[in-house]
Amino acid sequence: MIKRPNILLTGTPGVGKTTLGRELALRTGLTYVNVGELAQEGQLYDGFDEEYQCPVLDEERVVDELDEKMTEGGMIVDYHGCDLFPERWFHIVFVLRTDNTQLYTRLENRGYTGKKLQDNVQCEIFQIIYEEAMEAYQHEIVHQLQNNTPEDLEQNLEQIIQWTKQWMSDHN
Predict the structure, then answer these.
(1) Residue ranges for the binding site?
(2) Mean pLDDT by 10 residues, the chain (172 residues)
(3) CA distances, 121 to each of 43, 53, 93, 101, 168 (Å)
(4) Which of 35, 68, 160, 170 is 20 to 30 A distant from 61 in Cα terms?
(5) Binding site for ATP, residues?
(6) What CATH number does domain 95-171 carry, 3.40.50.300, 3.90.1570.10, 3.30.450.40, 2.40.50.100?
(7) Where are the domains of the chain?
């Protein structure tokens, strides 16, 4: 029986998943996993995308790498995609959203340019990640959170911490 919940933080690159996830892990004691970092450390790639100038994730190997930890529970998973993960893994899914102007600036500051920058901003405008989450998971576990300001971040942290406490109370 899982004693601690598994949480997915997803959304377009630049919406604040990593900042939220790391702080959430500090405040809850759950284990934070940034899938991009996990892939880099384990070289879990399946080629290189010349157009976007980035490695292509080997989704099957990532799922294999995480499966045992997810079964144990208590995981916060951070990734900009969500439909690669088994539905059974997560008790709740948070799709972070950010104002397009702020997102553009954040991505530009990361060195995104051209098609990569435009495609990521369009992904946010058209709610692509939210739609993916709604297709991949039960609708009642998928929630959108605005993450534009430090105040939003703090409010999101408090909301997820309260949800986590309630889940643990209900399941232990």
Answers:
(1) 14, 16-19, 110
(2) 93 98 98 98 96 94 97 97 96 97 96 95 97 98 98 98 97 92
(3) 27, 17, 21, 9, 36
(4) 160
(5) 14, 16-19, 110
(6) 3.40.50.300
(7) 43-79, 95-171
